[in-house]
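Input (structure):
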């Protein structure tokens, strides 16, 4: 009897120890164990939404688990980001966000509902998103230099849309105005998609578009004047940069990426990072990203975090200097 009890106890101890062993223990729960929710903190149709849905589909195929996209727009991305920050830290709720929600919002709002550094962990970059200067066809200009001259000759008579106060399209507009001494009225929207709708309707005369407007420019419904990047977009090599058009050193690029709740286990974060990089390398996802004029951004977490810190420093300095708020 004693011998039998000893064997039973030994088996129990070994089973318990096995559950604690890394990688493949019988009782260890594999990730993901249920569908993943990918929160996009901007409305449907914008760059974050388009990229997020392409990644969700590919990740679902790779992980053999459904990845469900849900849009939680508002407060320049704060509402969706806050929802993810307060979600269970098990990797089954993720955030797809523009860089601005992490690097710009802390400078815009007197108080934040979450701490972007502590409450959310950067999982993986997804794309370097460019902004394209687009004008309504009614404007009598054929290139960026003529556009600058037209705005200067009509101070306060033109308005421009953006994805919201403090969004990269808004900051791009303010940076351009500051450098060239222009005066135009800013009209913020709850995302780039509704701003684009009003630009197409002529309710605003121009905007910095993060990609969804490019197909309309191809159809002649908008005038594509320049790209707000240090170098030309690989998908649009004939479109000059703002720097080439007379706005020296102009750079309004931002990095969109995936984030998880801050306490998510490192093993889960690393697994997700590797799977996202794998998804970004597929032709299908790359095609979607490049259709926005953006560039797929495959890299390490350290590179993603370093770029985020650099953007926080440069955009933060501009916001403070020009006293830009979320109001």
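Output (sequence):
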């Amino acid at each position: 009897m004693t011998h039998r009890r000893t064997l039973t106890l030994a088996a129990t101890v070994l089973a318990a120890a096995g559950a604690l062993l890394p990688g493949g223990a019988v009782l260890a729960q594999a990730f993901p164990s249920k569908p993943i929710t990918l929160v996009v903190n901007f409305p449907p149709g914008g760059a974050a939404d388009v990229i997020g849905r392409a990644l969700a589909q590919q990740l679902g195929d790779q992980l053999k688990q459904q990845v469900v996209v849900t849009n939680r727009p508002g407060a320049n991305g704060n509402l969706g980001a806050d929802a993810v920050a307060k979600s269970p830290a098990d990797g089954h709720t993720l955030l797809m966000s523009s860089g601005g929600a992490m690097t710009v919002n802390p400078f815009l709002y007197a108080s934040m509902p979450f701490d972007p550094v502590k409450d959310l962990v950067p999982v993986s970059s997804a794309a370097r998103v460019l902004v394209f200067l687009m004008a309504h066809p009614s404007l009598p200009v054929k290139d960026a230099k003529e556009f600058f001259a037209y705005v200067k000759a009509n101070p306060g008579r033109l308005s421009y849309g953006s994805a919201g106060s403090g969004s990269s399209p808004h900051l791009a507009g303010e940076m351009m105005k500051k450098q060239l001494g222009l005066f135009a009225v800013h009209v913020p929207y709850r995302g780039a998609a509704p701003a684009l709708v009003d630009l197409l309707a002529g309710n605003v005369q121009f905007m910095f578009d993060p990609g969804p407007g490019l197909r309309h420019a191809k159809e002649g419904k908008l005038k594509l004047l320049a790209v707000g990047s240090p170098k030309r977009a690989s998908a649009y090599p004939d479109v000059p940069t703002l720097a080439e058009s007379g706005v020296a050193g102009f750079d309004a690029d931002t990095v969109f990426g995936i984030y998880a709740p801050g306490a998510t286990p490192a093993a889960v974060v690393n697994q997700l990072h590797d799977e996202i990089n794998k998804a970004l390398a597929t032709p299908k996802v790359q095609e979607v990203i490049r259709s926005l004029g953006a560039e797929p951004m495959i890299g390490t977490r350290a590179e993603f975090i370093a770029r985020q810190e650099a953007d926080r420093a440069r955009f933060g300095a501009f916001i403070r200097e020009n006293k830009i708020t979320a109001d």
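Notes: The first strand starts at residue 36 and ends at 40. The CA atoms of residues 199 and 205 lie 6 Å apart.
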